[in-house]
Amino acid sequence: MRVLIVEDDSILQDSLTRTMRSAGHATDTAADGETALGLLRGGGFDLVLLDLGLPRLDGLQVLRQARETGCRTPVLILTARDGVEDRVKGLDLGADDYLVKPFSLAELEARARALLRRGQAATPLLSCGALTYDTVGRRATLAGEALELSLREVSVLEALLFRQGKVVSKDQLIESLCGYGEELSANAIEVYVHRLRKKLEPGGVTLRTLRGLGYLMDKA
Ligand code: CA
Q1: I want to staple 51 with a disulfide (CB 3.0 to 4.6 A). Which of 1, 7, 82, 208 is the partner?
Q2: Where is the domain boundary, 88, 120, 152?
Q3: Is 64 in the same domain as 11?
Q4: 32 lies in which domain range?
Q5: The pTM is what?
Q6: Distance 201 CA to ligand 1 centre (A)
Q7: What is the 65 CA–ligand 1 centroid distance (Å)?
Q8: Digitized pLDDT (tens) for each residue of the chain, 220 residues in all
Q9: Which own/partner pairs from 128-133 qualify as long-range (CB within 8 Å, at least 24 positions apart)?
Q10: 195 CA distance to ligand 1 centroid (A)?
Q11: How far, in Å, from the CA of 8 to the mean position of ligand 1?
Q12: Residue 199 Cα, ligand 1 centroid: separation in angstroms?
C-alpha cells in the first residue's frame, strides 16, 4: 500500500512516516498543500493522511480540489483539538475519517488500517499457527480460545503479527506503542513481550529474542 503523508510539522511527519513504514506501507510526504495536490493528481495512493493547517494551500482546500478532480483515495484528516468546524467541513468535503491531535500512533495505525481495508477484499483476520487475530475487533484467539490481553499486549501482538517471520526492533515496538509525549522504556517493552510470549507459547507460537536486533514472531 502507498500512503501520502501531508504534514508541515517535520517531527510529526517523521513519526507518521515511520509508523506507516513499519506497518509495511510505502510512503510519500508533502509539507505544504500545493505539493500535496500535485502528488495526489499523479495518483497511485491508497491512503492520504492530511493535516489541515498547511502552508500555501490549507488541508481543506487540498481535499476540495482533489475530490473535485475525481480523486477517490481515502483521506484521514489530522486536526487540532479545537478544530470542530474544520472537522465537520472536512467530512462534508469527502474526508473518510479524522483524528484529533495529539493521537496515539497505535490509534493512527488502526484507523489507517480500517481505511485501507475499504474497497479491498482482504480478510480482516491474520493468523500465525494456532493464533488468529481479528484486526477490526482487535481480539486474539489461540487454538480457538480467546486470549486475555492488555491493550499494550495487543499493540505488541499487532506489531509483531503484521511482520511475522521478520525481525521487529525494540525501537519499532516502542514507536508503535507510544503516543506523542509518552515515554516507554526498553525495559517496559521487554516486560510486554515476556508476558505475551507466555500467553502464546502453549499454542506453539514463538516470540524469539534476537539479541541486539529485536523480536521475531513465528510458529513452532
Ligand atoms: Ca500543520
Answers
A1: 7
A2: 120
A3: yes
A4: 2-120
A5: 0.56
A6: 45
A7: 19
A8: 789 999 999 999 999 999 998 887 888 999 999 999 999 988 878 899 999 999 999 999 999 999 988 888 899 999 886 778 888 899 889 999 999 988 999 999 999 998 987 745 445 778 899 999 887 678 899 998 999 998 889 888 988 988 888 899 988 888 777 654 567 788 888 999 999 999 999 999 999 999 999 999 988 7
A9: 128/161, 128/164, 128/205, 128/217, 128/218, 128/219, 129/203, 129/204, 129/205, 129/219, 129/220, 130/203, 130/204, 130/205, 130/219, 131/161, 131/200, 131/203, 131/205, 131/219, 133/157, 133/158, 133/161
A10: 39
A11: 5
A12: 42
User: Residues lining ligand 1 (ion), CB within 5 A?
Assistant: 8, 51, 53
Tell which of 120, 142, 169 closes a domain: 120
**Cα 83 to ligand 1 centre (Å):** 12
Whether 111 and 26 share a structural domain: yes
Give yes or no: residues 104 and 212 share one domain.
no
141 and 90 assigned to the same domain: no
Residue given cell 490481553 in the structure block: 149
Distance 52 CA to ligand 1 centre (A): 6
